Amino acid sequence: MASTRLERFWVLFLRLVVKAFLSVFRLFAPQQLGSTEGHRLPPITEPLLRVSAVQLARNIRRKQVTSVQVVQAYIDRIQEVNPLINALVKDRFAAALQEAAQVDKLIEEETGGEDVLEDRLPLLGVPFTVKEAFALQGMPNSTGLLSRRTVVSGVDAPPVALLKRAGAIPLGVTNCSELAMWLESHNRLYGITRNPYDLGRIAGGSSGGEGSIIGSGASVIGVGSDIGGSIRIPCFFNGIFGHKPTSGIVNNGGQYPPASGQQPGFLCTGPMCRYAEDLLPMLRIMAGPNAEKLSLSANVDLKKLRFFSVPHDGGSPLLSPVDPQLIQAQKKMVEHLEADLGVQVEELRIPQLKYSFQIWGAMMSSPGKDGKPPTTFAELMGGGEKRVWPVWELFKWFLGLSSHTMAAIGLALVEMFQSSQPSQFILQQKESLQKELDELLGTDGVLFYPSHPQLAPKHHQPLFTPFNFSYTGIFNILGLPVTQCPLGLSVEGLPLGLQLVAGKLQDHLSLATALYLEKAFGGWREPGDTEHTLNSTSNNVSNAT
Ligand SMILES: CCCCCCCC/C=C\CCCCCCCC(N)=O
């Protein structure tokens, strides 16, 4: 799709503004990164860390390993890698070990047999981690806001409570972006989280602490949330699996900030994990009674599904072009699927996707059914009592006196110029995209779409490319379930991956496809595993064709 001259002018203008802004940013940015030169994650030596949560639970039930051994193995790995990645921001190791000992005692005393335990407590004795934006009893719940540094949760968020009720043991809470609204997990309370595949790169956001701790082998499963890609982006950058469920399936309660306006319809809570087989049982647990609305027990025959591949958004001038290695990985995956399953994957261009950012922005700022507009970002930054003044905050930031990150200040500044009345054209694009995708996917379709146009960027780089999250954000607005699936490593050793999108309530289809692709492409790779890199970058498919 060709860009108009006006669009090209705006792109050039915006790029110049952002470049000038970033040069100034680099001069003033607080030096929170430290040197990571030459530092690499130590290899995983403990075999228990290479086992899925489902398998760990089975081994614990069968007394082949104790919960204490598993929890201790994860604590050791966290202590080994966390000083490098800064992903876990508060632990509860002592309590977790006590709970694990109780689990081992319960299993010793259980007379009903393994099946009873599996049915009642499917994740009994398995450790997990939680994004700090969720309430976990006794743990901080600041969402990276300095003014909330003393907030400690008295109860558990509903999906966290459901995982605990299934027998899982929380190890602690992980870092996120300020107010869970940025592509990089960085805030003035806990600092910056690093990517285990390259410490000089971002772990993604907003559930970046989860992405990094799971990707580095220091947690096996975790809880994330996603209103624009906050599960899928960190899963992609850290080479793990994640699932944004159909909107409304998992309870979003107990997280800060609460969604307002129309946002509750776009916010999704979901699982993040290293092994695809953990996605479905986690979703079943986290969805509670809503799991019945999904066909999670259905047998999926992939040969009977209809597959579609969309290689890029059609060339939005605001976004980066898709990295050739990602285009190539998607092509390779399609070829494999066709050859192995005998299916025909239809390659599509969907012109409305070019407006993904505008659609996301318009819907996120729309008033709710009660006519009330959403809480502004400046109000959220003020902690709910008073709003911050973005220009004043920017001034303070340059003097090193602001309690906020540049990303948060930037979002509050942009909000000042946002129109409260979305354009009719954009609303029409949204309606026609929704209709087209609902019809296309139906109850047997899966669509492949890049997770992000770039591989994990260097720290702070998203300040240059803030609109790239639109590749994920559009599916929050459409309410569709999306599974994030890793597809090996790039030539630089960075994770490759893809979004698998299904029709509403058809979560089982994208989950089944992820399981299949894990077998074909190897799923999560240990950071530093150079055997599985993509060895050609020669594909130069244009994004605007
Ligand atoms: C300092 C530059 C700021 C420029 C801001 C440009 C506007 C971009 C708008 C929104 C970016 C939101 C990123 C959302 C990332 C995922 C959030 C989530 N919780 O799912």
Task: Please describe what this structure looks like.
This is Fatty-acid amide hydrolase 2-A. Belongs to the amidase family. It is a single chain. By secondary structure, this protein is of the alpha/beta class. The chain has one domain (43-373, 420-530): Amidase signature (AS) domain (Amidase signature (AS) enzymes), CATH 3.90.1300. The chain has helices at residues 5-28, 53-61, 67-85, 93-109, 114-120, 158-165, 208-215, 232-237, 279-287, 324-341, 356-364, 377-381, 390-398, 406-416, 424-441, 470-478, 507-521, and strands at residues 88-91, 127-131, 169-174, 186-187, 191-192, 194-195, 198-202, 221-226, 241-244, 268-273, 306-309, 345-347, 445-449, 482-489, 495-502. It has an 11-stranded mixed β-sheet, with helices on both faces. A hairpin with a 5-residue loop joins strand 14 (482-489) and strand 15. Helix 6 packs across helix 9 (279-287). It is globular and about 70 Å long. The chain starts with a helix and ends in a 24-residue tail after the last helix. Bound molecules: (9E)-octadec-9-enamide. The site of (9E)-octadec-9-enamide has 19 residues, from helix 14.
